[in-house]
């Protein structure tokens, strides 16, 4: 098995790594709406659909067999805490370019997750080199509370964009608000611009 590629998120190379309005914590708070889903990997599936030439569905074993990467990044939560130096391991979003023939009119992705949660991203943000579907955090499998078995991690945006309990992605031609965005959160979510709310 090949050694996973290691990537440092560009934000950790900043002289000042803490965005405006944030404070650093060493803890990792768990924040979510509603109950924590308990997901059985034996029945978990990952669906790729929308503006693709052929829809695909992967089971958990097929998904984790995809090439792995490691990403060192910071976390910035919209509730004002930041946690530095997080080591993630999982599947790069760019791997999906080889799995699905994405149609030219696709400009956005809606990430789907258990419990009806969704979040929206531009293709540019979604396919950034430091974005991944995380299976591990700091060497340990992700707990259910932190989004396991599979969590999207988008290091350069506020942490609500790093959707927990991911189970699919839908390619779209228009930017459609996700769960938190429909509730008043910003459509993009850049912490350095304090894009917290609409």
Describe this protein's structure.
The protein has 198 residues and is mostly beta strands. The protein has a single domain (5-11, 43-193), classed as Oxidoreductase, molybdopterin-binding domain (Sulfite Oxidase, Chain A, domain 2, Alpha-Beta Complex), CATH 3.90.420. The protein has 4 helices and 12 strands; from the N terminus they run ββββαββαββαββββα. Strand 3 (45-50) and strand 4 form a beta hairpin. The longest helix has 5 residues, at 60-64. 34% of the residues are buried.
Distance between the termini: 45 Å
Average pLDDT reading: 95
The CATH architecture? Alpha-Beta Complex
Q: Give the tally of β-strands.
A: 12
Oligomer: single chain
Query: Any low-confidence stretches, pLDDT <50, length ≥5?
Result: none
Total discrete domains:
1
CATH domain class: Alpha Beta
**Over the alpha carbons, how many angstroms does the gyration radius reach?**
16 Å
Structural class: mainly beta
Topology order in helix (H) and strand (E) letters: EEEEHEEHEEHEEEEH
Give the overall shape, derived from the CA principal axes.
Answer: globular
Strand content: 25-35%
The helix content is under 10%
Helix tally equals 4
CATH topology type: Sulfite Oxidase, Chain A, domain 2
CATH homology superfamily name: Oxidoreductase, molybdopterin-binding domain
Main sheet overview: 7 strands, mixed
Summarize the structure.
This protein has 198 residues and is mainly β. The protein is built from 4 helices and 12 strands, in the order ββββαββαββαββββα.
Give the topology, please.
Layout: E1 5-8, E2 23-24, E3 45-50, E4 56-59, H1 60-64, E5 68-76, E6 81-92, H2 96-99, E7 108-113, E8 118-122, H3 123-126, E9 132-137, E10 140-141, E11 151-153, E12 166-172, H4 179-182
Parallel strand pairs: 1-5, 2-6, 3-12
Antiparallel strand pairs: 3-4, 5-6, 6-9, 7-8, 7-12, 9-10, 9-11
């Amino acid at each position: 098995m090949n050694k996973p590629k290691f990537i440092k998120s560009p934000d950790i190379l900043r002289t000042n790594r803490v965005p405006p309005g944030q404070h650093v914590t060493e803890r990792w708070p768990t924040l979510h709406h509603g109950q924590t889903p308990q997901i059985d990997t034996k029945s978990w599936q990952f669906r790729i659909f929308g503006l693709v030439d052929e829809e695909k569905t992967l089971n958990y074993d097929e998904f984790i067999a995809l090439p792995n990467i490691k990403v060192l990044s910071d976390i910035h939560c919209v509730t004002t805490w930041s946690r530095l130096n997080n080591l993630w391991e999982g599947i790069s979003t760019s791997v999906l370019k080889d799995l699905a023939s994405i149609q030219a009119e696709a400009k956005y992705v809606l990430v789907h997750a258990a419990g009806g949660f969704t979040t929206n991203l531009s293709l540019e943000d979604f396919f950034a080199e430091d974005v991944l579907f995380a299976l591990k955090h700091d060497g340990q499998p992700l707990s259910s509370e932190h989004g396991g078995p599979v969590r999207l991690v988008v290091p350069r945006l506020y942490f609500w964009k790093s959707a927990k309990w991911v189970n699919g992605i839908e390619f779209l031609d228009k930017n459609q608000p996700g769960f938190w965005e429909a509730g008043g959160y910003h459509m993009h979510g850049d912490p350095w611009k304090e894009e917290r709310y609409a």
